[in-house]
Each structure stands twice: as structure tokens, then as C-alpha cells.
Specification:
Elements: H1 3-16, H2 33-103, H3 107-125, H4 139-148
Amino acid sequence: MQTRSIITNAAPRTLELGIELLDLRLKRINYVEEVQKKIYERMITERKRIADKFRSEGQGGASKILGDKERELKKIQSGAYKTAQEIIGKADAEATTIYAKAYNQSPESREFYNFIKTMETYKTTMSEKDWLILSTKGDFYKYLQKHSGK
């Protein structure tokens, strides 16, 4: 209630006592205990709503920051992977050039290179459980025949 309406409603009663009510100042209002509990519950509910709003906004901000971090991390990892692959490619090219120079010095060195590469291929493609059936026209059989003296 407003102070003016309190004065207006109280003035007829105070005149009966010979008192004229000119002004009114309220220092404190005490509510009935039941009303007081409801007011406190409403205040608590309002504060919880505000706190939940701030939490929600904070979680949204945290999610955005985490998303930005993940995107930046993927970008860095992708760049590092690209650089590593470029380095590996250059190293492989240089190794191939060195091998080519070393194995291309004579017909024997070329034949040895072919033999080494054939053996590496068999090593990487076969395991202990695999069976090998050789043809008399295959490179592997050719190498075995040369080294057995037949």
C-alpha cells in the first residue's frame, strides 16, 4: 500500500481520538508468519532463477571456448601432420635418389637391388603361417636357382 492511501484510510479513525494524521513514515513492516514464509520462498525462488540463468550463460560460454579450443587444436595438428608428411616425402625422395645412384653403378648392382627389393616384398607380405608355391618363371625361384649353383 502507498503511504497516501494509509493516511487517507486512517484519518477518520484518528479524528475520533482528536488526532490529525498529517504524515506517516514506515520503518519496518512485519508480516504474519505464514505470509513471511511465502515471501521468503518467493525471494529464494527468484534468486535461484537468477543463479540458474548465470550458470546457463556460463556453461554456454564454456562450451564456446571448448569448441574454439578443439577447432584450433585440430588446425594445429593438421598443419603439423602436413609438415611431417612433407618432410617424410622429401626424405623418401632423397633416399630413393641415393639408392638409385648406388644401385645403378653396374649391372650387378642393379641385379642386387632387384634381389633386395624382392626379398623385402616377400618379408612384408608373408608371415610364418603362409605357404609359398614357387613358379619356375618367378623372380624368387630365379634367385634361388642362381645361388644354389644349378
